[in-house]
Design a protein that fits this description.
It contains seven helices and no strands. It has about 120 residues and is mostly helical. The protein is globular.
Length: about 120
């Protein structure tokens, strides 16, 4: 059964929450020193990028309503294909600065989809 936009938005929300949980109580130095946490956070970013790419195909109107949507997909590609050049400082910054915004945007989109679905 094909997945719908809600499923991909849910994936993004879950990954945003997982990133926040993984970084809870850590500072940048602790993050840089913990390979398991770095791997976990990077994996969640890959999921976010894959889900965003899927949204671009099945729901382009939703995709473009997400701030920096194209950059999210590009970041996933960089994590996957250019992994030796990934900067822990950049990943940390994106996780702390941009993930909360992304989570809020996707939660708003989920609510909007729910309202549309309920009235149909």
């Amino acid at each position: 059964m094909p997945r719908d936009a809600r499923a991909y938005l849910a994936d993004i929300l879950e990954s945003c929450d997982a990133i926040a949980y993984a970084l809870e109580g850590l500072d940048l130095d602790a993050y840089k020193a913990n390979r398991l946490v770095r791997s976990s956070v990077e994996r969640e970013f890959i999921i976010i990028g894959e889900a965003a790419a899927a949204l671009s195909r099945i729901a382009p109107d939703l995709f473009v309503s997400i701030s920096h949507a194209r950059r999210i997909v590009d970041f996933r590609n960089r994590l996957t294909h250019e992994y030796p050049n990934v900067s822990d400082v950049i990943v940390w910054g994106i996780a702390k600065r941009d993930v909360p915004v992304l989570r809020d945007e996707c939660a708003d989109l989920m609510r909007a989809l729910g309202e549309v679905g309920e009235s149909s």
